[in-house]
């Protein structure tokens, strides 16, 4: 049964990849594929429902990095089951709704891909059985929500809303990570079951206040609690399907989910009680009050969401067993009526072209079905009897009256709950009255009408749930609520009754006062004030923008102080920092290594050393003549490659040789934008300073290298030699280290290399730099070298594939093979030009990098299917006719990813160097260059 969990988690990601990679999917086909993920997920979840309702906890784990407590553990209990059902169920309705909401100009492929990524991130978070794994998915929800909120990237409000949400929730994520690390330090484990069972240990630790504050910072920013609530209304710039999903089952519910998830471990202290309930009460009232004065339908609903999230936070802060049950119950109720309300608002916007309530009104006559559905959902939001919102609001009143602690706390919580009930009725009335009653609509194009049939189906389903739960809660939601609440409370689970009528009591009286007070408040505001003239001043947005401006200003000042465009200055700072960091331990505790007696060096070694020394000194004296300096430096690199050959390191020699060739081409391309000669040094003291720093840094590096090379043989190198063949099935230890023993490091390196290539592409794609000198006349044709370069390509391709295939057992591998394949193409770029080469070759280097990283990830994850850690090697011996025995190692798949990333990254960087656009200035176009007028940063002419 537990083997279903990984498939349940993988479904959204697999469907997202299918939609993103399939370029010819129609809108309807993309919707079907996207809808298949939550529907199949619900089927899988249904197979596990009987066990969960019986109180079982389903787990499945894969060891990944056990030394730091990181395991890929999936865990399904009642709370995770409930949230998974919300994510999948409402997700399926949102997919159907979006099919009819999005216009023909919107990219359905991009939308559904991002939506499924969001769905997968939420599923991963609620199913995580390890706090560190939960953090991975927590941050993925921030990234995917950023993409969805900014989906309409052509709109400024969408870009600003996405950035604001990402900065606030991302900052909270960093705080949460610190809190999780503190919890792991206190408990000694990141396993969720161990953490949940260690509540007394955590609360008794001196680190508990800090851990609690950091975790709550992450929760409050994610769930838009005061004072971080201001980002949520600006996220309404997203398409309405995103808003409906974000407010009901994802993103903002992630915070209250984590609050419920860690409740057994963190709740039970006065700090938790006062802080969580206090922040919840403030958010409850601030959101409700601001909702009344919004003119945008989605703006009103956004502030109402803030208020209801405050209500849930308040209930979990009270920490009594019944308050926890009420909090879980309201999570369910709020998800249903809020998703239906957002979808109804989207239908109104879709049919009228506006969400401004000042231009709406009278829609009950033009859109009777939509109006009925929205009115019922609004009454559920207001907490009217026979609807689901009434039941959880009654629980809020009862728990507020039973608040523990001093009398003033009980009075404050009861007053806040009653006032929130009044305000909730008031803003619900405004939503209903200003949209569906009165005169209107005004100043809209055309006559509004009902939307397509299937666009209303999701709203109808959700409203039907609101009615069913409100009328017969014991027959509908009781098992779900019991399973979810029991997974939090355990043995403290209270006995309660889900029924519509509990007799005449104080909570019922508070409900009646809330309804009457809300009606009176709304009527009074309409009569005594002009609600339509109310101005909503985004104070939070203003403070955020000022803070961001101050931060960027500080960063700019620091950048200008440190990076003024001088490469020499940056190199000086880099070398000085390296010298200080490396020399500090020796200065604190001087200790010289015990070097063994030197061995005699053969004549060939002396010759290589002398040529290398001559090249280094030649570069020092020829640095002003840049072309000669490049050639001399290349000679020094060639001698290093030969030294590796001399020391029996063929892999290093091949790598060094290929890097030298690629670097030479890069320098030649870059020299097109540099003067032929470097300016002389300004002062003699600068030469002496640089010489001293170079001698210290070079001497220290030489001593370190000599120390490493003269270590005794009984080091980790000997262990690698012994384990390479029996454990990694490879005889080439260097390649085995790269793709197996240190495969995760290699994966990080190729990821950084791919990112660097994309950054270079982004910087140079629109850059304009003037060449230093433009040769008169047409370009010089070099037919013989060009023909030779073309002839070499098939041969080089063959050599590249040969080196790749033999890399696991002989010198070679993906890194070397990728560089070998790049060299002949680079030569063609230099000889024939970018346009000529790419018109014949036509290779997408960016996609090559992406495919390479994907291949590396998938090949590494394949081992986890067999219950072994990420990137663990497997081996297979094939007996083929004619060929004979063919040994294959699974590391070849990972090496393929390295091969593609290296080739694509190198070619992308160097091809961009050859396609920099010329400057727009007349002097640059005619080659009239004045060195003193050139920008030191970009090479652009002033």
Describe the model.
By secondary structure, the protein is mainly alpha-helical. It contains 39 helices and four strands. It has a two-stranded antiparallel sheet. Strands 3-4 form a two-stranded antiparallel sheet. β1 (58-65) and β2 (70-76) form a beta hairpin. α20 packs across α24 (506-528) and α27 packs antiparallel against α28 (626-646). It is elongated and about 105 Å long. Residues 921-942 have low confidence and may be disordered.
SSE diagram, text form:
Elements: H1 4-21, H2 27-53, E1 58-65, E2 70-76, H3 78-101, H4 108-127, H5 131-149, H6 156-187, H7 192-196, H8 199-203, H9 208-222, H10 231-234, H11 240-248, H12 252-261, H13 263-266, H14 270-292, H15 297-318, H16 321-352, H17 363-366, H18 368-382, H19 388-401, H20 407-436, H21 453-471, H22 473-476, H23 478-489, H24 506-528, H25 539-562, H26 567-588, H27 603-621, H28 626-646, H29 650-670, H30 684-709, H31 716-728, H32 733-741, H33 743-765, H34 783-806, H35 814-832, H36 834-841, H37 845-862, E3 875-880, E4 884-889, H38 891-913, H39 922-925
Antiparallel strand pairs: 1-2, 3-4
Helix pairs in contact: 1-2, 1-4, 2-3, 2-4, 3-4, 3-11, 3-16, 3-21, 3-23, 4-5, 5-6, 6-9, 9-12, 11-16, 12-15, 14-15, 14-20, 15-16, 15-20, 16-18, 16-19, 16-21, 16-23, 18-20, 18-21, 19-20, 19-21, 19-24, 20-24, 26-30, 27-28, 28-29, 29-35, 31-32, 32-33, 33-37, 33-38, 34-35, 35-36, 35-38, ...
């Amino acid at each position: 049964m537990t083997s279903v969990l990984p498939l349940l988690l993988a479904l959204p990601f697999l469907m997202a990849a299918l939609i993103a990679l399939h370029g010819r999917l129609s809108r309807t086909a993309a919707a079907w594929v996207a809808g298949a993920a939550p529907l199949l997920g619900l089927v899988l979840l249904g197979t596990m429902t009987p066990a969960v309702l019986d109180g079982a906890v389903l787990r499945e784990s894969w060891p990944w990095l056990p030394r730091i407590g990181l395991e890929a553990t999936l865990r399904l209990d009642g709370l995770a089951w409930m949230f998974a059902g919300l994510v999948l169920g409402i997700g399926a309705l949102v997919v159907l709704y979006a099919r009819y909401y999005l216009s023909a100009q919107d990219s359905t492929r991009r939308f559904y891909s991002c939506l499924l990524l969001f769905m997968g991130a939420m599923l991963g978070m609620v199913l995580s059985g390890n706090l560190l794994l939960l953090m991975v998915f927590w941050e993925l929800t921030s990234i995917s929500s950023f993409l969805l909120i900014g989906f309409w990237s052509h709109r400024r409000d969408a870009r600003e809303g996405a950035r604001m949400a990402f900065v606030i929730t991302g900052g909270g994520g960093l705080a949460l990570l610190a809190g999780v690390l503190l919890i792991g330090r206190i408990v000694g484990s990141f396993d969720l079951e161990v953490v949940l069972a260690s509540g007394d240990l955590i609360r008794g630790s001196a680190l508990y206040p800090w851990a609690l504050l950091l975790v709550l910072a992450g929760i409050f920013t994610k769930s838009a609690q005061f004072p971080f609530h201001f980002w949520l209304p600006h996220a309404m710039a997203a398409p309405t399907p995103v808003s409906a999903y974000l407010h009901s089952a994802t993103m903002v519910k992630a915070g209250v989910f984590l609050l419920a998830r860690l409740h057994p471990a963190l709740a039970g202290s006065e700090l938790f009680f006062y802080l969580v309930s206090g922040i919840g009460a403030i958010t409850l009232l601030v959101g409700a009050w601001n909702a009344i004065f919004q003119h945008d339908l989605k703006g009103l609903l956004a502030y109402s969401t803030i208020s209801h999230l405050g209500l849930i936070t308040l209930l979990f802060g009270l920490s009594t067993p019944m308050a926890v049950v009420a909090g879980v119950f309201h999570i369910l109720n709020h998800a249903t009526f809020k998703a239906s309300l957002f979808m109804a608002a989207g239908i109104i916007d879709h049919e009228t072209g506006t969400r401004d309530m000042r231009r709406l009104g009278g829609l009950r006559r033009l859109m009777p079905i939509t109006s009925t559905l929205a009115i019922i959902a609004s009454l559920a939001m207001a907490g009217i009897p026979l609807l689901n919102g009434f039941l959880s609001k009654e629980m809020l009143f009862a728990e507020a009256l039973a608040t523990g602690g001093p009398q003033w706390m009980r009075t404050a919580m009861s007053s806040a709950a009653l006032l929130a009930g009044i305000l909730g009725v008031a803003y619900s009335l405004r939503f209903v009255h200003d949209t569906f009653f009165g005169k209107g609509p005004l100043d809209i194009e055309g006559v509004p009408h009902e939307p397509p049939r299937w666009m209303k189906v999701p709203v109808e389903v959700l409203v039907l749930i609101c009615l069913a739960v409100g009328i017969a809660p014991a027959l509908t939601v009781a098992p779900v609520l019991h399973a979810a609440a029991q997974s939090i409370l355990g043995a403290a689970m209270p006995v309660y009754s889900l029924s519509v009528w509990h007799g005449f009591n104080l909570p019922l009286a508070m409900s009646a006062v809330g309804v009457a007070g809300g009606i009176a408040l709304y009527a009074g505001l309409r009569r005594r004030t002009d609600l339509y003239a109310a101005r909503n001043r985004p104070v939070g947005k203003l403070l955020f923008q000022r803070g961001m401006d101050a931060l960027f200003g500080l960063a700019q000042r620091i950048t200008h102080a440190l990076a003024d465009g001088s490469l020499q200055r940056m190199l000086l700072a880099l070398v000085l920092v390296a010298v200080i960091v490396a020399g500090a331990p020796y200065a604190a505790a001087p200790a010289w290594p015990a070097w063994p007696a030197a061995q005699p060096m053969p004549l060939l070694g002396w010759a290589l050393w002398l040529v290398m020394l001559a090249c280094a000194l030649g570069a020092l004296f020829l640095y002003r003549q840049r072309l000669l300096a490049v050639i001399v430096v290349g000679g020094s690199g060639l001698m290093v490659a030969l030294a590796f050959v001399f020391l029996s390191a063929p892999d290093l020699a091949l790598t060094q040789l290929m890097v030298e060739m690629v670097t030479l081409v890069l320098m030649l391309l870059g020299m097109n934008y540099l003067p032929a000669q470097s300016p002389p040094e300004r002062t003699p003291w600068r030469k002496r300073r640089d010489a001293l720093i170079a001698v210290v840094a070079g001497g220290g590096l030489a001593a370190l290298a000599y120390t490493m090379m003269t270590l005794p043989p009984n080091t980790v190198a000997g262990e690698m030699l012994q384990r390479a063949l029996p454990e990694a099935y490879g005889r080439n230890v260097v390649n085995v280290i790269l793709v197996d023993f240190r495969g995760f490091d290699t994966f990080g390196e190729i990821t950084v290399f791919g990112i660097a290539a994309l950054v270079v592409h982004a910087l140079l794609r629109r850059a304009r730099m003037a060449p230093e000198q433009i040769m008169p006349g047409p370009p010089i044709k070099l037919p013989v070298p060009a023909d030779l370069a073309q002839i070499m390509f098939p041969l080089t391709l063959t050599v590249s594939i040969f080196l790749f295939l033999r890399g696991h057992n002989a010198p070679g591998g993906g890194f070397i093979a990728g560089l070998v394949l790049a060299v002949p193409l680079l030569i063609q770029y230099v000889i024939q030009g970018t346009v000529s080469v790419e018109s014949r070759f036509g290779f997408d280097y960016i996609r090559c990098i992406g495919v390479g990283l994907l291949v590396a990830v998938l090949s590494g994850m394949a081992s986890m299917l067999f219950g072994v850690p990420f990137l663990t090697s497997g081996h297979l011996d094939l007996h083929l006719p004619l060929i004979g025995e063919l040994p294959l190692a699974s590391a070849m798949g990972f090496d393929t990813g390295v091969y593609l990333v290296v080739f694509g990254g190198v070619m992308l960087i160097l091809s961009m160097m050859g396609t920099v656009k010329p400057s727009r200035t007349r002097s640059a176009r005619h080659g009239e260059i004045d060195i003193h007028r050139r920008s030191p940063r970009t090479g652009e002419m002033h």
